[in-house]
Structure formats: structure tokens, C-alpha cells
Amino acid sequence: MIILIKNGRILDPATKTDKTADLLIEEGKIKKIGEKIKAVADEVIDASGCFVMPGFVDLHVHLRDPGFEYKETVETGSKAAARGGFTTILAMPNTKPVVDNGDVVRYVLNKAADVGLTNVQQTGAITKGQHGEALSEIEEMVEAGILALSEDGKTVMNAGLYREAMMLAVKYDIPVLAHCEDKSLAKDGVMNEDARARRLGLPGITNAAEDVIVARDILLAKETGARLHLCHCSTKDSVTMLRQAKAEGLSVTGEVCPHHFTLTSADITRDDANYKMNPPLRTREDVDALIAGLKDGSIDAIATDHAPHSFDEKDVSMKRAPFGIVGLETAAALTMTELVEPGHLTPLEMAEKMSYRPAQILGIDRGSLAPGKTADVVIFNPREEYHIDAEKFASKAKNTPFHGRKVKGCVKVTILAGKVVYER
Ligand code: DOR
Ligand code: ZN
Ligand code: ZN
Questions:
Q1: Predicted local confidence at residue 332, as pLDDT
Q2: Nearby residues of 415 by Cβ (< 8 Å), 6 or more positions away
Q3: Which atom of ligand 1 is nearest to the CA of 92?
Q4: Which of 93, 134, 170, 240 is the most exposed place for a label (fewest CB within 10 A)?
Q5: Rounded to whole angstroms, how far apart are CA atoms 243 and 167?
């Protein structure tokens, strides 16, 4: 299979390439980039006016499979990924059963390979059943193919146990992805603790609920030498601590989710569970700090925290609904609209935050368009304007606060290892 992509704006952060050219794909690999490439191709794609980027890599996805297939499955999640331009997604372990042993890892990876629409990778839970009491079968899960450890959905509050897990992560050379939330501080809060929460009469979550765990985790990473990645950073102080950790030379990275750089708690005008996520939407001051962190490199990656839930689960008060919103099919458009259009990030930096850096953090040879690399490619039209329509999502779930929002930027084609897996 030979695919020729004509006249696109080739954006490859790995080689710092930003130029208009053709890109030739042969036998699943990037064959060459050049001007007016002549080739007998099975498929020629006109990418005039479009970005041609390495396929996006999402470090934070909830596939809900096994156990919560009514919310999402490996198949529907893979379809949503392809439609969103993601060619690699990392699945979180808070399924039923929890991904805490080799069998569950193999179940997800085998199912994903059968579906074949995106490269699915799996995280292993840190503790058995995510109960926070005993370590999971970490060695067995590493053998089954996990690429990272994470207790996402929760924080391992027992610091001693967490430290042991970090030492194993060093031994197996995998990162630890941290959900930073001290439940004794967050309590039963459902949104940011501020004037808006008081006006709506809803219980709040302060920044410290996140910040105290960010501080703890950085200190433990410093002591153990573990590669620490901070999930869904939402506060200004988490950015400050991340910046300082990097300045100290520690292996600490961080991600921010599109909802956290797009919305603030002031956008919550009524008790609407599509605005309930963990961590919550914060203040303008926090959002400005997150954007500054993305700009100066303190924040490495954009990840979705794609968290599908059923309509009925979200069709209740924020006090009763589960945390989380879907993100795979809106992330690129929100990044374009909120960060690239206003000039916070360049198109090349968009590719860096959505593809190259997350691939590096995961330790996989993806996120580059250099000749010889696996041909995971996304063709993205940065000029197309439209209103987000949740009904069109390939995901089973529609829980998003962005339904009806006007955005700019649309995924046209997604190519996985030289095969078109999505075409609008
Ligand atoms: O909003 C969230 N939803 N945050 C999390 O940490 C967990 C996730 C979920 O699993 O639904
Ligand atoms: Zn989380
Ligand atoms: Zn999550």
C-alpha cells in the first residue's frame, strides 16, 4: 500500500520541520518528504491548506473495558480515537476488574489489536483493586506489556507503599502517572471552591487538594529517581512546582487537558454534570498559569482524560453524577482554537504537545514523521469552522460541556501504520 499526501504543511517536532511538501508512505513507514514527489500510489490525498502531523498520542484515556461496556468499549473508544486524530492512546486501569494483573492487561491489548483502529497501550494499577492497601502484580503486568503505572481515579495515599511502587517503576524503566488528589481535602466537593460554587450551593474542592499531592509526589520522585508524570494539572501552583522540579533536573513531566485550558468555573452557570470533572475547572488565574506552562515547556503534553459516562449517569445533579467528560473527539479542535489561533502555541508546538512529547514520555518510537518511522499521520484542516456536535461522536458517550461550541480545526484523515483508519 502506497499513500501519497500532496501539498500539506508538514509539521514534525522531532526534526523541527515546518514546511509545505509532499509525504510518501510505503509499507507502513514514512518513505520520504519532498517537493513534487512522483510515485505510483494506491491513494493520493490532497492536503492543501492542511497540517500534516504525526498521529496524536493521548496519555490519558478511560476505555471502560472490561466492566463498564455500557459507557465505552475498546472498539468504540478506538473509533473515537481515530476520529480525533489519535493513533496511540494509553488506557487507564480503573475498570472492573481493575487492571492489576497480567490477565486483564492481555484482555485489553488483544481486544485492541483485533479492532486495529488505534495503537492501544495500557497502564497497570499501582495497588490491588485500587484499594490502596497492597501492591498489584507489577512484574506480571510489565511482562504482559504495560508501559506505565497509574492509580488514576485515585491517589495512593499510603506514601510508603507508593514509594515502593516508584522503586519498581525505576527497576522496570516505566513512568508513574499520578492522579494528584488528597481525598481528605477534596471530600465530597464537585467543583472548584469559589464564589461560583457558593452561588450554586455546590460543595467545593480547593487547589490544595491537588497541590499537596503534587509536592509529595515530586519529593518521592526525587528520592527514588522515578520518572513521574503529573496527570491533568489544573492549578497554578502545580505548574510552579513542575517548573521548579524541571529546573532541578528531575524527571518530572506534566499534562493539561483541553477543558482545563478552555473553561473556568465561571462557565458553570447552573448545576450541569457535564461540567463535573476531576480535577475541577479552576479560575482564570489557574488557566493563565496552565497556558504559560504550556508555552514555556513546564507542561509537556496535552492529554484528554477521555472519561465516558452514560446519559443517565450524567443526567442528575453534580452532587450525584460521576466525574469526567469525553475528550478524544474535541481535543485537537480545542487546542487549535484556544491555543494556536490566539498565538499561545505554534502549529509545530501543537504537534509537539499532542504527539512527540507524549510519545517520549511513554517511551515509544512514535510522534515523528522522519523517514523510516511508522506512518502514523493525522491530516488536520486548521481553517474549517463548525459547531461541535456530540451526536456525531464515534464514542458511545456524549458527556461534554462543548456540545454546540464553535471551534476551528477539523481532523480530515487519520493514518495508522500506513493504513487509513478514519476519513471524514
Ligand atoms: O474526571 C475524571 N474522571 N477524573 C478522574 O480522575 C477519573 C475519571 C473517570 O474515570 O471517570
Ligand atoms: Zn485522574
Ligand atoms: Zn483519568
A1: 99
A2: 3, 25, 55, 87, 375, 376, 377, 378, 379, 421
A3: 10
A4: 134
A5: 23
Contact assessment for residue 198 and residue 206, using Cβ atoms and an 8 Å cutoff? no
* Percentage of the residues of the chain whose pLDDT score is greater than 70: 100
Question: Smallest Cα–Cα separation from 123: which of 303, 328, 252, 368?
Answer: 303
pTM exceeds 0.90: yes
* C-alpha span between 359 and 381 (Å, rounded): 23
Averaged pLDDT, 258-263: 99
Angle at Cα 173 formed by Cα 172 and Cα 178, nearest 5°? 100
Which pLDDT score is estimated for 48?
Answer: 98
| Amino acid in the structure at residue 209 | A
List Cβ neighbours of 58 (8 Å cut-off, separation of 6 or more).
Answer: 81, 86, 88, 89, 90, 303, 304, 306, 328, 331, 358
Q: Which domains does the chain have, with CATH numbers?
A: 3-51+374-382+402-423 (2.30.40.10), 55-362 (3.20.20.140)
Q: Which ranges of 307-374 would DSSP assign to H, the alpha helix?
A: 311-314, 331-335, 347-351, 357-362
pLDDT of residue 297: 98
pLDDT digit string, tens, across residues 339-355 = 999 999 999 999 999 99
- Ligand 1 pocket test, candidate residues 58, 62, 65, 304, most atoms within 8 A of CB: 62
Q: What is the largest CA-CA distance in the chain?
A: 65
E-assigned strand segments in 179-295: 191-192, 204-205, 228-230, 252-256
Give the rounded percent of residues in the chain with a pLDDT score beyond 90: 100
